[in-house]
Amino acid sequence: xxxxxxxxxxxxxxxxxxxxxxxxxxxxxxxxxxxxxxxxxxxxxxxxxxxxxxxxxxxxxxxxxxxxxxxxxxxxxxxxxxxxxxxxxxxxxxxxxxxxxxxxxxxxxxxxxxxxxxxxxxxxxxxxxxxxxxxxxxxxxxxxxxxxxxxxxxxxxxxxxxxxxxxxxxxxxxxxxxxxxxxxxxxxxxxxxxxxxxxxxxxxxxxxxxxxxxxxxxxxxxxxxxxxxxxxxxxxxxxxxxxxxxxxxxxxxxxxxxxxxxxxxxxxxxxxxxxxxxxxxxxxxxxxxxxxxxxxxxxxxxxxxxxxxxxxxxxxxxxxxxxxxxxxxxxxxxxxxxxxxxxxxxxxxxxxxxxxxxxxxxxxxxxxxxxxxxxxxxxxxxxxxxxxxxxxxxxxxxxxxxxxxxxxxxxxxxxxxxxxxxxxxxxx
Length: 428
Fold this sequence. Notes:
Blueprint: E1 5-10, H1 14-25, H2 27-34, E2 38-44, E3 59-60, H3 63-68, E4 74-77, H4 85-94, E5 98-101, H5 104-120, E6 125-126, H6 138-144, E7 150-156, H7 159-171, H8 175-184, H9 193-196, H10 199-213, E8 223-224, H11 232-240, E9 243-253, E10 257-268, E11 280-287, E12 291-298, H12 302-322, E13 336-337, E14 344-353, H13 359-369, E15 374-380, E16 387-392, E17 395-396, H14 397-408, E18 413-422
Parallel strand pairs: 1-2, 1-4, 2-3, 4-5, 5-6, 8-10, 10-13, 10-18
Antiparallel strand pairs: 7-9, 7-11, 9-10, 11-12, 14-16, 14-17, 14-18, 15-16
């Protein structure tokens, strides 16, 4: 048994600084849980002079040299991005160092390469903090439910978009106004593109699907829509149906395929996800034997994310002390990823129409022509403000798209004001 395990930390921003704090404050408890002390041996940052709370002898701007040190046992990465992080982590794994990463973008793009390097060199790769912050979610998928068959994972995995949509629902504000509030409160970055356009949630969905369905899924496999086109009218229309709008990550398994998608959707107010407000995350997991499980908590923030990082760090340290290894990549199923056009769900369609006889019959005929069955229909307004609102039964995405394209060319349709998926309604 070693006298101590030396840790290299890559990055010391919002999350990294909290990792350093927890390592200091909980040193005795961590030693008791692991069996040997964890010793912070170096911290790689861009500008060492901007971290006065960390001893100068620990700080370095040369991350590659820190990772290459022969006395380092464990590497923690909270930098983010693809390069140079991928090169640094591969160097660590190939030199026999176990790795903890919070890097969802890298794992969703090229997790397979990292997994292969970890397996080839007998070390661990853990990344609980990459999805849903402090919520214990990935390890239950990888370990606790390893004896079950997971059929669906659905949830809210981006706190910024959930805050924006929650404010739109509560106040009637438009997207731009709600985004400005989120930015002022620190929930949104100065450049919110990764969040509001769905890139962040898509990376997390790829990781979740890969673990749940034992299949390699990358961010490029995920169908993605953001929330920038969600309007106050969409929110109001959802309320009229006793629904609310959430950005959902949905991963589903069929017999020989999986579908992975991120998009805004209307869900009933009776659904547990409807009550998840502000910047919180929540994920439902459906498994054949275990049934439905819900994971809920803070999905971001320095201290919550650092908690997940420390949990992984304790796990890989225990493995190092005991001579064991954690779970390897499980991609044996190798299922086909279904194109979005083949995925079936229900839809809410709002059409600005001319208010005259025969419009509804013609629209209904177009839906029937493409095999899309209508569940409910209502008209809002009269004259120049007439809007036809339809909710469909389950239909393929390609059939719905073809229907909307045909209707949009009709002379009495001013525009398709909104097309949004509906999730969580009783099966029909």
